[in-house]
Design a protein that fits this description.
205 residues; mainly alpha; 0% strand
Length: 205
Amino acid sequence: MTELPREVTAAEIAQLLQRIDGAAERVGFARADVLDVEDISNATGIEPERVRELLSGSEPVQPPREKRARESYYRHLVMQRLDRLRAGQSYRKIGDAVGLSHAMIGNLVNGTRSAQVDYSSPLEELYGVDHGFLSKPEGLALAQHLAKVKEGLIAAALHDKMLTLGAERVALRHTDNQPPSLETLLDTLDSLVAQKRSSGADDAT
């Protein structure tokens, strides 16, 4: 690892949680309805008990700045998260699936080799987790997950408001009971504004 990641503080996480509370309230939910410790743990690789601590205000552990200590930190982080993902799969089976030697997989699992993008990305793709799952510090991983939750709640609130305004076609543009993306909602909002302007112009004539 050559770049220092952005350090996320407990105060920033608290701010995100406040925004989630407000967004959840808009669609009739409470924090407990939209944040599940196990789901967060699975999405971030942070152990459930540590997720609880971070949500309760514990300061995230930051990667050391000294080179050797930082490398050791990341080796340990990758070791923990990859071991959790592989769930007992053999090194050879994993290596064959991603085109890496079983020795390389063993080094990663045992914490004797740093994870570079060249082989961390294929592993993340194999297990269907977000890019950076293996190496994001806990503060950054949690903050990015909470930001996604917040955006989803905002999209849900916008979706409800727009249906109230008569944008029924929005309801047909998403699946699995999930709200459409913010981009889709913005496009539809643009259409509603254009229709309103057009209607106003017609009324004026």
